[in-house]
């Protein structure tokens, strides 16, 4: 065999071995971490901006007809991920009275022979879950499933052996569904049942190699504190929580950021190896500030916008929205609703914040995606604190700066690769752009957002290459 032929043969083998990305069984619906480790993408290389909604009690509270209404509404409002508990507790039943487990043992799912999710008369708890997973798939929605809520593990109702059997059951049942993402944990610190969480994560990965896995942590904590280097953990998630600055009781925690959810993103962004990160539970719309005192002020649409833009501009690959009534699928017939919900879920799905979230996703997808980085050097001079802080992000040919209060701020020009830039105001309430003008791309320039400075008069300054 001559030398030239050997080189040619080696090149062909190398191309076949390394040059062709292996297709997963879900085709272009498959999700994976982008090459730079910061974002998610689909199999065809398109960006996937996670816009999640917390429908935690979907499987246990809604009928099939109601679930279809909910999922269709979220599809129409631009959401693409639904975060939901598979088991809120080990004694879980659905709206039809069907129990999920035998004697509250997660290693013993209660299955009815012959039932299936398409049978409208006879089915069990798991057929009901299957129905909703499939219905979400029909609408292009991913289901981010929490196997078992953290309280059950903390209270020793799930041990390692049970967790392993249960996680294997879930993985085998749903590994062939394209629209699954796994949220290990569930409002819990990783140290509360650490071995169980590792068992669930490792078992899911061993039995289901094609779906993403993360950990949903306790309020004011980040999953990266415990699981950043776990082999089963594909991306990091934080729960920035529901308290005001002056209500923060976590001063002894490793991370103490108050309402500044952007700080979690900033901390995760610096970690090695590089992994995507997201705020998977910020303050919910219409939930009492601090959660437990229903006489407190309620978080509004302006607040959920602030958390969204702050975290995404700080480097998050998406954002999860929540509403007090929707996350628990509240109905007036509920005997003991949590956190004093006012509207039933069917009304609350049309809350202002839920309608506005899609504008964040649309803005992020409207410019080049994978080259975007957080860059606070865009803010010239001293930045504001708390609500007055301006958050900045940019790509090679654009820059964006978010102000929650609509105060004047100065920009260090020259960060965009262009001699001149076009400046526009983007309205997070309506998704509309208003052109300001064209400017020479050098020096420092002050910008004056529309309206008078006030909390909730939020705007995004967008600078585009000309």
From TrEMBL:
Could you tell me which PROSITE patterns the record lists for this protein? PROKAR_LIPOPROTEIN
**InterPro entries registered for this protein in UniProt:** Apiosidase-like_cat_dom (IPR025277), Collagen-bd_put (IPR024749), GH (IPR017853)
GO molecular function term, any single one: hydrolase activity
Q: Keyword check for Hydrolase, yes or no.
A: yes
Domain named Putative collagen-binding: which ranges? 373-464
Q: Where is the Apiosidase-like catalytic domain?
A: 34-370
Q: Does the keyword Hydrolase apply?
A: yes
- The secretion signal range is none
Keywords of the record, alphabetical order, are: Hydrolase
Cross-referenced Pfam families, in alphabetical order? Answer: Apiosidase, Collagen_bind_2
Determine the domain of life of the protein's source: Bacteria
Which named protein is this?
A: Glycoside hydrolase family 140 protein
Q: Origin organism of this chain?
A: Pedobacter endophyticus
């Amino acid at each position: 065999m001559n030398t030239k032929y050997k080189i040619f043969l080696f090149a062909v083998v190398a191309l076949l071995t390394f040059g062709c990305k292996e297709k997963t069984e879900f085709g272009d619906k498959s999700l994976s971490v982008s090459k730079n480790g910061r974002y998610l993408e689909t199999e065809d290389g398109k960006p996937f901006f996670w816009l999640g909604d917390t429908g935690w009690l979907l499987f246990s509270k809604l009928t099939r007809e109601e679930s279809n209404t909910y999922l269709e509404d979220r599809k129409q409002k631009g959401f693409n991920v639904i975060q939901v508990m598979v088991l809120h507790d080990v004694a879980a039943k659905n709206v039809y009275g069907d129990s999920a487990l035998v004697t509250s043992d997660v290693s013993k799912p209660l299955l009815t022979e012959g039932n299936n999710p398409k049978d409208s008369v006879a089915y069990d708890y798991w057929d009901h879950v299957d129905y909703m997973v499939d219905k979400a798939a029909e609408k292009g929605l991913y289901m981010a499933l929490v196997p078992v809520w953290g309280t059950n593990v903390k209270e020793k109702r799930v041990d390692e052996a049970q967790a392993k059997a249960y996680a294997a059951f879930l993985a085998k049942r749903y590994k062939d569904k394209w629209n699954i993402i796994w949220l290990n944990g569930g409002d819990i610190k990783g140290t509360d049942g650490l071995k169980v969480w590792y068992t669930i994560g490792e078992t899911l990965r061993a039995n289901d190699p094609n779906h993403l896995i993360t950990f949903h942590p306790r309020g004011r904590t980040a999953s990266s504190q415990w699981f950043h280097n776990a082999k089963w953990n594909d991306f990091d998630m934080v729960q920035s929580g529901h308290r005001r600055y002056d209500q923060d009781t976590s001063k002894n925690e490793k991370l103490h950021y108050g309402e500044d959810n952007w700080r979690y993103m900033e901390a995760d962004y610096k970690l090695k190896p590089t992994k995507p990160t997201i705020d998977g539970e910020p303050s919910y719309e219409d939930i009492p500030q601090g959660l437990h005192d229903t006489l407190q002020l309620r978080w509004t649409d302006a607040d959920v916008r602030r958390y969204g833009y702050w975290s995404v501009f700080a480097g998050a690959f998406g954002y999860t929205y929540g509403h007090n009534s929707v996350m628990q699928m509240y109905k007036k017939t509920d005997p003991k609703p949590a956190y004093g919900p006012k509207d039933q879920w069917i009304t609350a799905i049309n809350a202002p914040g839920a309608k506005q979230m899609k504008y964040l996703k649309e803005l992020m997808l409207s410019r080049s995606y994978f080259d975007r980085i957080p860059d606070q050097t865009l803010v010239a001079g001293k930045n504001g604190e708390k609500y007055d802080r301006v958050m900045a992000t940019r790509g090679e040919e654009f820059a964006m700066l978010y102000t929650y209060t609509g105060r004047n701020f100065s920009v260090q020009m020259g960060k965009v690769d262009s001699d001149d830039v076009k400046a526009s105001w983007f309205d997070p309430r309506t998704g509309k752009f208003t052109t300001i003008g064209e400017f020479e791309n050098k020096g420092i320039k002050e910008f004056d957002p529309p309206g008078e400075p006030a909390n909730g008069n939020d705007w995004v300054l967008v600078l585009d290459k000309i």
